[in-house]
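Long-time lurker, first post. I've been practising inverse folding by hand and with some scripts of my own, and I keep getting stuck on stretches where the structure tokens seem ambiguous. Below is the full token string for one chain I'm working on. Before anyone asks, I'm not after the true native sequence, just a reasonable design that respects the backbone. If someone could post their per-position residues I'd love to compare against what I wrote down in my notebook.
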């Protein structure tokens, strides 16, 4: 089975409970659509756990995008240049401190492994099942055009933009996104997965006191913690 979840934001207990709930085994795959870290306390703990599971495939979110250059410089004990300093400030405003605090408590080899792991996060994934095709990204496809290839979108288009959930982007594919908590999309989807207009939005706002959602792409069954 293929599962998708997103925006864990350091909610380690909910993450572990979800793995048990979906009974993830080595024949399954779990895609995590970014924003594993920040805001909540357990981001580093989640990363260390994900790293041990080859059937978890991580995609990059805007929080990993902010964190990686800053943590790389910190780890190398390099001074922050102007660009990284700006990024550092932006990251701190967006809940990066919880991650930074725990990162610097790790020993050098663990820190190195975390950084190497963050480098492997992909920008998008395409999943073809018998009758359905899914495009997985963290945030959306800004500057969308029907015949544009996924490789032609910029990192910002994929990771930082907002989706228009009222509009179907593809006729023949379902766009699966995190980043935008579903309670901000439609009041009927508080703490629930939004599934409409060839969209599946799976950030159910765990860090905002709602739920952690997970969907099985084969059956479209939804799971909540
Ligand atoms: Mn995000």
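-- Answer (accepted) --
I ran through it position by position. Result:
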């Amino acid at each position: 089975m293929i599962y998708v979840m997103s925006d864990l934001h350091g909610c380690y207990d909910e993450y572990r409970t979800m793995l048990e709930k979906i009974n993830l085994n080595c024949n399954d795959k779990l895609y995590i659509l970014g924003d594993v870290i920040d805001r909540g306390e357990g981001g580093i703990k989640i990363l260390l756990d994900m790293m041990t599971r080859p059937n978890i495939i991580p995609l990059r979110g805007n929080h990993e995008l902010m964190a990686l250059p800053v943590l790389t410089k910190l780890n190398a004990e390099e001074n922050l240049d102007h660009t990284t300093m700006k990024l550092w400030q932006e990251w701190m405003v967006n809940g990066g401190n919880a991650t930074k605090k725990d990162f610097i408590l790790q020993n050098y080899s663990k820190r190195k492994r975390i950084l190497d792991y963050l480098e492997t996060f992909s920008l998008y994934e395409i999943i073809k099942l018998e009758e359905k095709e899914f495009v997985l990204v963290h945030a959306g496809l800004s500057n969308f055009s029907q015949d544009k290839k996924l490789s032609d979108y910029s990192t910002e288009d994929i990771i930082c933009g907002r989706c228009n959930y009222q509009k179907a982007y593809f006729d023949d594919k379902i766009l699966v996104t995190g980043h935008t908590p579903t309670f901000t999309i439609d009041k009927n989807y508080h703490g629930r997965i939004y599934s409409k207009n060839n969209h599946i939005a799976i950030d159910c706002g765990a860090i905002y006191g709602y739920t952690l959602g997970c969907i099985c792409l084969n059956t479209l069954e939804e799971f909540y913690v």
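A couple of notes from the structure itself: Residues 30 and 203 are 15 Å apart (CA to CA). Residues 62-75 form the longest helix (14 residues). Happy to go over any region you disagree with.
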